[in-house]
Write the structure tokens for this entry.
Amino acid sequence: MAADGKKRPLVVAIVTSDSGVGRAVLGGVAGAARNFDWALETIDPSVTGADFSQFAELLALADGVIVRLRQIWLVVRPFLRPGTPVVGIDIAPFPGSGLWAVVNPANQRIGEMAADELMADGCACHAFVPALPPVPWGDARGRGFLERVRAAGGDARRYEPRTTWKGVAERDALAAWLSELPRPFGVFARNDVIAGFVLRACKRAGIDVPREAKIVGADDDETLCLYASPSLSSVRIDHEGGGRRAAEALRRSFGKPCPARPVALVFDPSGVTRRLSTGRPGPEGDARLAAGLAFISRHFGERLVGATDVAAAMGLGRRQAERLFRNAGKSIRGELEAVRLARVKTLLASTGMTLESIAVECGFSTGIYLSGLFRRRFGVSPGSWRRDARAPGRPAEPDARRRAGKRSPCARSLNFSVDSRREI
């Protein structure tokens, strides 16, 4: 019951959490649900699988539903009561969708922003790399990119994949295609997952990134971008804000009939996060900065590691190393903190470890210090973030060390037919 004695609306959020995008969306929905005093239940198809009959009773009782991705909505829809308001995220409007509203980033604008970023580097050629299966949001990003380059009189090309990106055949085909492009060239991949494939194809072809090729992805998924080598530049998209917008739209839909065509809510990307794949520090600085970032990614769990250790790994004095990080819009301390906190989030979401244990594993002095830092950076306590990030039924393991060499539930879910191709 709500504070005024009325029944709290039961809202079900059906969002995959095995990607940074999905977790950001879920965080936005959960934050809004707290503000609206909803009873929020979550279903994570990447963990539970495609059989939604196990949630038939919950879905039949729902006062409202938020669902991400069209293929999941089509499977869930038969389990809902007629007239249940539903808001879709990352779903293009389509006839008879049954959705009250759809919330999407301005995908064509994302492509335009990537084009502007790469054209500023004076590349001889610009290419867009999509993936199979084609999806409306990916096509819109590619269209925005190619039209922007052509409008500026540039050489714009599009790669046509023949298979999915799960094996080496497509990587090698892309590597051969990239080898034929005039250099230096710029590549926009439809998201950060594909940007990683482009980077590996460049390495396969012996193409130096960023000297001969510059790469920009989309979504700014820190886990994917920071751990790439070199790190990936990416268009920032406020997916958490998209989750909040979806919750606000659902709140407005209560008690109203579903419109013939869903209300379309669109939000703009917020800019480009520049990392090493676009080479702003220059070739020598890029190599040394890459060495520093690689050292951080390997040693962030050691509490006493600091700027002096990172500088030594770069072959520089501390002041020179700090200057090189500043030139790239970073700081050594900030990068250490970002990588550590990214690992903290992973452990909070996927294990039952105590905060003290997580602090030790991630290089923080105490759980108390980590709790305060986490609240300052993200505006919520680690415990609250864990509750929002963890879907019902996700198995928790008491110690991350027990997971060494094992595939996570999310990794095992890559064979799940509804969700396995959704992000690429």
In short: The chain has three domains: 10-105+239-268, 107-236+273-278, 284-391. Residues 281-285, 393-424 have pLDDT under 50 and may be disordered. DSSP finds 18 helices and twelve strands in the chain. The first helix runs from residue 20 to 36.
